[in-house]
Specification:
The chain has seven helices and seven strands. By secondary structure, it is of the alpha/beta class. The protein has a single domain, classed as Rossmann fold (3-Layer(aba) Sandwich), CATH 3.40.50.720.
Length: 249
């Protein structure tokens, strides 16, 4: 397993939820972090949290910088990458979601989610490839736990990310490895705008159909990203961290 000690890790979507928990775990392993996201206040709060945690354990400050960027703005995304130093690992949490099947969904929503999940990550990969050092990796975030009739554009977007991973793994080998983590529904701040009763209903439904009868913890998900960054012989893979939900689907 490759160490993260003194490695530069970019986490796009690292100011909350899974991305922030990954940042904490990577910092504990000695990584130097660049956190990017759309919300400047959340980025500052994440930076302060990471600095405080490092001080508590007498570790060096782990955050090289925070950078505000909307990854869906491809012009801004290009300028963002041009300003970055060489990187060892790039993690993308980018990708909006939706529920419902094809027949009732609004075409604009379908297009937006597929654009967000797939095309944004394609451009991100093109730009990240130019910044990654030899021996580095990219890890994308896809998803699992639903079928096309349940979350049509999200399902298509996830298939697109996994196809992207397979293609890039060949195109960038042997210099850079490319993989994806595929969580199922997880309780994170991503759902902060959803009414609380809807969140609880969704939580209960997933806990009832996941064979392990619970949701994943943020640490369990963060460990999947760490594994894919650290294992130098894994590339082109989609790691489902879903409690076995698709076994009964």
């Amino acid at each position: 397993m490759h160490s993260l000690q003194h490695k530069t890790v970019l986490i796009i979507g690292g100011s909350s939820g899974i991305g922030l928990r990954l940042a904490h775990r990577a910092a504990a392993e000695g990584a130097q972090l660049i956190l990017a996201g759309r919300d400047a206040q959340r980025l500052l709060a994440a930076q302060a949290e990471l600095i405080q945690e490092a001080a508590k354990h007498d570790r060096p400050t782990p955050v090289l910088c925070t950078m505000q960027v909307d990854a869906h703005d491809l012009t801004a995304l290009q300028s963002f990458f041009e300003a970055l130093p060489p990187l060892d690992h790039v993690v993308s949490m980018v990708g909006d979601v939706m529920g419902g099947g094809f027949l009732q969904a609004d075409m604009a929503v379908i297009r937006h989610v597929i654009e967000s999940k797939f095309f944004t990550n394609v451009r991100l990969a093109q730009l990240a490839a130019e910044r990654l050092r030899d021996g580095g990796s990219m890890v994308f975030t896809a998803g699992t736990g639903g079928r096309a009739q349940d979350a049509c554009a999200s399902y298509v977007g996830n298939l697109g990310i996994n196809a992207l991973v397979e293609g890039l793994a060949v195109e960038l080998a042997p210099r850079v490895r490319v993989n994806s983590v595929c969580p199922t529904w997880t309780l994170t701040p991503f759902w902060r705008a959803m009414p609380s009763e809807q969140v609880e209903a969704t939580r209960s439904r997933f806990e009832s159909i996941i064979p392990l009868k619970r949701l994943a913890s943020l640490d369990e998900l963060a460990e999947a990203y760490l594994f894919l960054m650290g294992n130098g012989f894994v590339t082109g893979q989609h790691l489902a961290v879903d409690g076995g939900i698709m076994l009964g689907a």
